[in-house]
């Protein structure tokens, strides 16, 4: 039996359309969704929420907003899995370099996903992280 | 035409030959590249053989299977990494194995092609790989020339162009799959948002052209005596449709016959950017005041709104490229993030100054002084 109904996903993205689309996608899967439109807003509401999973964009107010945010959220919610979903892929030549040991220790995310991933793939990855 | 050496490492002969076939007579070219690239294909049936070929020939791109008879793909990646080879590696894998994907990414793989692939999928992947490789090598070259800023600009630009494409594609997918039923009217908000994002892209492209012209110094400037009050009238008229939609009143107070030696297009861009911002970042039923007059030995232009305002932190970044103030009040507003950067650069060309006064939720005032 699937128990998505009890799970809350916190979505942070500065693209209002991406939020709209991801929110309806996740709600269709049965999750509760809370959203924030940027790093700052996310930090502002962080201590009022209790998410089971976090999906955040990378480039928001700053180029590294997603990294900073996941760092802070990991500190607050050590056991909550974090997905960084970004349109910024290595094809820009500016990959966020997991190649480098330093950043690997620093980047506190459990998974990187490319935006535009299909709903069923996303659902599978979420279920895996939530151990559903 | 330049040639990239591509090595395909896979124990299945079928995969190797389909790569060779798919890339025969295929070349990759982008407007930003100096020349097109075609591919010279090398084949290896094991990781060991692959490493041999890489040691001997200057391979640029590797298509690498993970499950190989001897050492596996990840070990080949390790070898490439520890020897600091300048190659772009793409894993040939089944999409499902995300663990492998992460592991491979950690080891420096650039991308994944899922098996089985069509020739077109492979070509698309190769386009991205080539672009990446080109940009990566170009970056290295530019770093030597001290041009990182330019590259950062390009990276952000590609992000800015990709976001609206993703948004529109997402909406089109929802519509194409009729996810919320057969009634076209139910999709109106998605259609409207898609149109809005397209407009944003168009603005970005136009702004980019302006910026490029300024920076390259290639635009033919036509400095002559122009009447600023006339320019201001044109700008006020241009912005009116947008203002009416949100019931915002635009008040223009400009001295008549206010002559200045300037390029009329540049003056229009400066005023237009400020006035359209004043409307965009305003509240419903708000006001915009445009004031232009001669004062001592300069022309004083102010554009003031009764809008959402900005914090001091926001203001400090305001004139940089691609800066957009992001908060819950601005999330539905589209823009290129280049407008004010352009304004500032143009004002600099006249040895002028621009200042900002702003209070959150009260409004913003831009003050421009141009010496005459």
Describe the structure.
The complex is a heterodimer of chains A (132) and B (372). The longest helix of chain A has 14 residues, at 16-29. Chain A is an alpha/beta fold and 132 residues long. Helices cover 39% and strands 17% of the residues of chain A. Mean pLDDT of chain A is 82; it is low at 90-99. Chain B has 372 residues and is of the alpha/beta class. Chain B folds into three domains: 2-144, 3-Layer(aba) Sandwich (Rossmann fold); 149-216; 224-371, 2-Layer Sandwich (Heat Shock Protein 90), CATH 3.30.565.10. In chain B, 47% of the residues lie in helices and 22% in strands. Chain B has helices spanning 13-23, 47-56, 73-82, 98-106, 119-144, 148-176, 188-216, 228-245, 264-280, 312-317, 339-349, and strands at 2-9, 27-28, 37-44, 61-65, 88-93, 111-114, 224-227, 249-254, 259-262, 287-295, 298-305, 353-359, 363-371. The two termini of chain B are 52 Å apart. The mean pLDDT of chain B is 86. The chains are: A alpha/beta (132), B alpha/beta (372). The interface between A and B is large, with 34 and 39 residues.
Summarize the model shown.
The complex is a heterodimer of chains A (132) and B (372). With 132 residues, chain A is of the alpha/beta class.
Oligomeric form of this entry? heterodimer
N-to-C series of helices and strands of chain A: EHEHEHEHEH
> How far is the first residue's CA from the last residue's CA of chain A?
9 Å
**Amount of beta strand of chain B:** 15-25%
Our measurement of the CA-to-CA distance between the termini of chain B, rounded to an integer number of angstroms, reads: 52 Å
Structural class of chain B: alpha/beta
Q: Point out poorly predicted stretches of chain A.
A: 90-99
Quickly give the CATH architecture of the largest domain in chain B: 2-Layer Sandwich
Amount of beta strand of chain A: 15-25%
CATH superfamily of the largest domain in chain B: Histidine kinase-like ATPase, C-terminal domain
Q: How much helicity do the residues of chain B have? A: 40-55%
- How is the biggest beta sheet of chain B arranged? 6 strands, mixed
């Amino acid at each position: 039996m699937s128990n998505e109904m009890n799970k809350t996903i916190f979505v942070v993205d500065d693209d209002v359309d991406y939020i709209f689309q991801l929110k309806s996608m996740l709600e269709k899967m049965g999750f509760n969704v809370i959203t924030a439109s940027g790093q700052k807003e996310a930090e502002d509401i962080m201590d009022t929420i209790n998410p089971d999973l976090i999906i955040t964009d990378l480039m928001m107010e700053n180029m590294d907003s997603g990294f900073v945010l996941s760092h802070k959220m990991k500190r607050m919610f050590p056991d909550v899995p974090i997905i960084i979903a970004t349109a910024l892929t290595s094809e820009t030549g500016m990959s966020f370099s997991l190649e480098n040991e330093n950043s690997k220790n620093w980047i506190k995310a459990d998974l990187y996903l490319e935006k535009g991933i299909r709903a069923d793939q996303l659902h599978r990855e979420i279920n895996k992280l939530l151990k559903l | 035409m330049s040639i990239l050496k591509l090595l395909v490492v896979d124990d299945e002969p079928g995969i190797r030959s389909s790569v060779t076939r798919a890339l025969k007579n295929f070349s990759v070219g982008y407007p930003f590249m100096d020349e097109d690239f075609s591919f010279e294909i090398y084949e290896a049936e094991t990781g060991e053989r692959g490493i041999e070929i890489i040691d001997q020939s200057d391979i640029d791109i590797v298509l690498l299977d993970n499950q190989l008879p001897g050492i596996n793909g990840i070990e080949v990646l390790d070898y490439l990494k520890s020897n600091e080879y300048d190659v772009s590696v793409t894993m040939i894998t089944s999409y499902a194995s995300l663990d492998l994907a992460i592991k491979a990414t950690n080891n420096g793989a650039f991308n994944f092609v899922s098996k089985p692939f069509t020739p077109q999928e492979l070509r698309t992947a190769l386009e991205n790989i080539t672009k990446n490789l080109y940009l990566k090598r170009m970056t290295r070259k530019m770093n030597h020339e001290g041009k990182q800023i330019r590259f950062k600009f390009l990276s952000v630009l590609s992000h800015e162009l990709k976001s609206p494409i993703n948004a529109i594609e997402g909406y089109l997918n929802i519509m194409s799959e009729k996810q919320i039923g057969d009634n076209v009217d139910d999709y109106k908000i998605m259609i409207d948002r898609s149109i809005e994002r397209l407009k944003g892209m168009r603005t970005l492209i136009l702004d980019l052209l302006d910026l490029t012209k300024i920076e390259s110094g290639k635009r033919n400037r036509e400095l002559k005596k122009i009447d600023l009050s006339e320019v201001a009238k044109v700008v006020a008229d241009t912005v009116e449709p947008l203002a009416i939609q949100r019931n915002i009143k635009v008040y223009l107070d400009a001295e008549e016959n206010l002559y200045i030696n300037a390029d009329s297009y540049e003056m229009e861009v400066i005023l237009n950017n400020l006035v359209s911002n004043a409307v965009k970042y305003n509240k419903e039923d708000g006001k915009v005041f445009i004031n232009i007059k001669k004062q001592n030995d300069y022309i004083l232009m102010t554009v003031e709104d009764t809008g959402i305002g900005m914090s001091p932190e926001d203001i400090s970044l305001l004139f940089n490229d691609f800066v957009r103030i992001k908060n819950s009040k601005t999330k539905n507003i589209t823009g290129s993030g280049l407008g004010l950067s352009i304004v500032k650069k143009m004002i600099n060309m006249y040895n002028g100054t621009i200042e900002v006064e702003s209070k959150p939720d009260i409004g913003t005032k831009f003050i421009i002084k141009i010496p005459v």
